[in-house]
Design a protein that fits this description.
Length: 151
């Protein structure tokens, strides 16, 4: 295994990890439980996927400095996996086009002016957080196995 050498390579490898693990964990959620919530105000697995995908999608379009397009919500495991793949692939393509100088440039976001390097990295945190929520829901549904993909 080759270790990442630059921040962008690190972000890319972490996005790849999140992509593999979220899509793998979705294989262990019964299709009939995709809309199940542990509490009325909680999110279901599909709502978590839609939220995470929407956030990554927003950050990608902020980096591109273009108006964002709409995402169709996922309604099945197949659609959820395709949505995660779509937004991560787009974000990877976008961050791989950034130069080291571009990483220090700021861009206007709903949170204020932020460096592009931070916007490139935030989807990693977002996806790892929501991967944890999905695995927790799996445990509440009785799945006591770890489905973690390490490499």
């Amino acid at each position: 295994m080759t270790l990442p050498q630059t921040p962008l390579e690190l972000f890319a490898s972490q996005l790849d990890w999140a992509h593999k693990n979220i899509n793998n964990n979705l294989d262990f959620v019964h299709e009939g439980k995709l809309r199940w919530k542990p509490a009325p105000e909680a999110k279901s697995v599909l709502e978590i996927i839609d939220h995470a995908a929407g956030t990554v999608h927003n950050f990608t379009y902020i980096l591109m400095e273009e108006p964002k397009t709409a995402l169709a919500p996922a309604t099945t495991i197949k659609e959820a996996k395709a949505l995660i793949t779509q937004v991560i692939t787009a974000h990877l393509k976008t961050i791989q086009s950034l130069t080291p100088d571009a990483m220090e440039q700021t861009v206007t976001t709903p949170l204020g002016e932020l460096p592009k390097g931070l916007i490139a990295a935030l989807p990693v945190v977002e996806l790892i957080n929501h991967h944890g929520q999905i695995t927790y829901i799996q445990s509440l549904l009785g799945d006591s196995e770890s489905h973690l993909i390490v490499a």
